[in-house]
Amino acid sequence: MSGEGRGAAGTAAAAVVGVALVAAAAAILVIAARGAPAPTTLQERVRAVAVGLRCPVCQDLSVADSPAPLAQAMRAKIATELQAGTPPSAIRQQFVHAYGSWILMAPPRHGLSLVVWILPLALALAGCALAVVAISRWTRDRPGAARPEAAPAENLPGRPDAPDELSSSDRRLLERAVAASGAWEDPE
Amino acid sequence: MSDASSEATARHPTRLGGRSAAAVWIPVGIVVLIVALLAALFAFGLGRNPTVVQPVDLGKMAPGFQLARLDGTGTVSLGSMRGQVVVLNFWASWCADCIVENKALQAVFDRYRDQGVQFVGVSFEDQSGTARGFAKQMGMHWPLASDPGTTTAIDYGVTGVPETFVISPDGHIVAKTIGPVTYPELSEQIANAIPGGA
Lengths: 188, 198
Description:
The structure holds 2 protein chains of 2 kinds.
Chain A: H1 3-34, H2 42-50, H3 69-83, H4 88-99, H5 114-140, H6 168-181
Helix pairs in contact in A: 1-5, 2-3
Chain B: H1 3-11, E1 15-16, E2 19-20, H2 21-46, E3 66-68, E4 75-77, E5 85-91, H3 96-112, E6 117-123, H4 128-138, E7 144-145, H5 151-155, E8 163-167, E9 173-178, H6 183-193
Parallel strand pairs in B: 5-6, 6-7
Antiparallel strand pairs in B: 1-2, 3-4, 5-8, 8-9
């Protein structure tokens, strides 16, 4: 296969990988955006609010999952507020008002906490870009692939059977090395 | 590697395998920068004590309440004490630190009871009978109330007992102590809350 042919194949492979990565990311985003089905019963509505609140007397447990008396009291308060018609966002805000944003299981989307939300996405995008570039280079620079810019083998002084896959910079290095060591000693 | 190629590489230290030094070091520099930023963020997080929760209610209006007294003689409400400094103490009979702080609380109560400072004790996750017995044993002579459903404690952002709030005459939370109070600390908080000092 010619150098141009291999280059085109590498570009095509990188494009396929890029499209696959974008498709996978889009699928994940669609699933994440769809989220869980909307709660219907009071118990489900209480859980939907409680799962986003941290149990103040537990280690890394939400109010929904904790058996602690304080968490039970919080669930009861959430139920009372929901029955009174208070929107879930307003209930969450009541807890934030009393305990601070620390009470939220997910960090708020502002200030320093914003880094936690942006960084994984940025790293994922950077990783995808890196993968596309790396795959493109690997397929293009595979050993045996001819380089369009490589000089013809017969141009190398005293060594007509030299491999032709050297880059122009490597070829210059080789030429200097040959010149420094004198004439080639022909094995024959 | 032959002598010739070694020499050639030594003569061109800025090239690695035919790639320019910039092509190698720029990505390495970017990775090092990202890792350094993440490490700095991690170190910043490690430097903070996750068990310390900053009081968020200082300076805010104290949530109102009307609670039944433990002795069954009516109710106690924050609204009825407007215009006076209020010391609101959350406690429980099962709480060891509540025993520890009782002596200081008693002493501060004795010092300020005649200066218009109101003390209210709210039992936290306790049974009324047990709480009454504990209060009698400890000699808690200020108004004591039960908190059904722990709703008042949740409104104040209480995470455990004892916790003590000082509320100014205009109804703002001006001090909060998590854990047992001490005489000098609580005295100073009350003195600062009294208009003109005391």
